């Protein structure tokens, strides 16, 4: 079965490739280079649906889209849906990450708890829409570490690691991240729904 992946983010394309290969190697995921819709939703679900609908309309194929971001507890869930543009109009991952660390510098929060959210929308050609979500809990580091992944990975320490040997998401291998990330968890929830196409 063919499904269009409605994203212009090459990191998401690579991650989905690895996740799908692990769980649904029979699925043919096709890239999308059509027009990028305006993401003016106020929730991850709204934005994921906007992207999936646009790609389905453009290609006539089933389409899935991921809208994702990092949510910091002490900031009331921000940056959230604004993660890609946290430091301004330009998508600048380094500036976003620095701004977030700056904002936490003067806040007394020993836990620094945060989570990544991935919301995936699936738009089937018959108009049926599904939305699933995956969460990756963790906390924020005080300084970036690691070269892998993208976005906020260098400052995100996933939960569940051995004390004293904790790594940021950017210090995990691709296989390690793709076996536990928010995106992998959302995709896991999507797999049974793909059978309905
Ligand atoms: P598309 O809309 O084309 O899919 P995008 O990068 O603009 O690409 P989003 O609007 O969903 O996607 O923004 C997601 C942002 O959240 C992304 O730019 C990162 O800053 C952050 N983010 C999401 N998932 C992440 C991950 O796995 N690791 C690190 N940062 C992540």
From TrEMBL:
The active site is at 67 (proton acceptor). GO terms for cellular component: cytosol. Its EC number is 3.6.1.66. It holds the Pfam family Ham1p_like. Substrate binds at residues 7-12, 68, 150-153, 177, 182-183. Mg(2+) binds at residue 67. It catalyses: XTP + H2O = XMP + diphosphate + H(+); dITP + H2O = dIMP + diphosphate + H(+); ITP + H2O = IMP + diphosphate + H(+). GO terms for molecular function: dITP diphosphatase activity; ITP diphosphatase activity; metal ion binding; nucleotide binding; ribonucleoside triphosphate phosphatase activity; XTP diphosphatase activity. InterPro entries: dITP/XTP_pyrophosphatase (IPR020922), ITPase-like_fam (IPR029001), RdgB/HAM1 (IPR002637). Keywords: Hydrolase, Magnesium, Metal-binding, Nucleotide metabolism, Nucleotide-binding. It comes from the Bacteria. It is an enzyme of class 3 (hydrolase). GO terms for biological process: nucleotide metabolic process; purine nucleoside triphosphate catabolic process. Binds 1 Mg(2+) ion per subunit. Its cofactor is Mg(2+). Homodimer. Belongs to the HAM1 NTPase family. Pyrophosphatase that catalyzes the hydrolysis of nucleoside triphosphates to their monophosphate derivatives, with a high preference for the non-canonical purine nucleotides XTP (xanthosine triphosphate), dITP (deoxyinosine triphosphate) and ITP. Seems to function as a house-cleaning enzyme that removes non-canonical purine nucleotides from the nucleotide pool, thus preventing their incorporation into DNA/RNA and avoiding chromosomal lesions. This is dITP/XTP pyrophosphatase. It comes from Microbacterium tenebrionis. The lineage of its organism: Bacteria, Bacillati, Actinomycetota, Actinomycetes, Micrococcales.
